[in-house]
Write a structure and sequence with these properties.
The structure is a single chain. The protein is built from six helices and no strands. The chain is mainly alpha-helical. The protein has one domain. The protein is elongated and about 55 Å long.
């Protein structure tokens, strides 16, 4: 279970990295922007759609890993070993390393598609990518905006 949580965190981080790299860097004064309630509603809608798509991507990645014959736990262990060569790992076969490399290649191939999907989703909103990114940057430092978006998201979840 702990390994699955780590894997989900990895997939979410990968998705967010891919998604945020699609946007233009916001200006330093992003936290001082004026955001209308309607814009926060739209931001929350888009954010919710992005998170839903990220969950779908996560399931695709899990299937991809399992289709190659690796367990999620083993793949995560191999990824951690890549990131931290000093980490303790069990003896790994050449076959498992090759499977991991194949999976990594497939993930790398998927990244542009995922990025394009996320960009299109944002651009088709009434906010557009620049405004979405401004609001996202402002949310990082403005707790009142964070609170408003959380309230909107909670309300949307309760309506389901």
């Amino acid at each position: 279970m702990k390994i699955m949580k780590k894997f989900k965190s990895f997939v979410l981080a990968l998705s967010l990295i891919i998604g945020t790299s699609a946007f233009v860097q916001a200006q330093d004064n992003a936290s001082n922007i004026d955001v209308k309630d309607s814009e926060l509603e739209e931001f929350a809608n888009v954010y919710q759609q992005l998170m839903q798509r990220n969950q779908e991507i996560q399931q695709e990645l899990i299937g991809m890993i399992e289709d190659e014959g690796l367990s999620i736990e083993k793949y995560q262990e191999l990824r951690e070993a890549d990131l931290n060569p000093e980490a303790k790992t069990e003896e790994t076969s050449q076959a498992d390393l090759e499977k991991k490399e194949k999976i990594d290649g497939k993930i790398k191939e998927l990244e542009p598609k995922i990025q394009k999907e996320q960009t299109e989703l944002i651009e088709k909103s009434t906010l557009g990518s620049d405004r979405y990114n401004e609001i996202a940057m402002a949310l990082q430092s403005d707790q009142s905006l964070q609170q408003k978006v959380q309230e909107i998201l909670i309300k949307k979840m309760q309506e389901k």
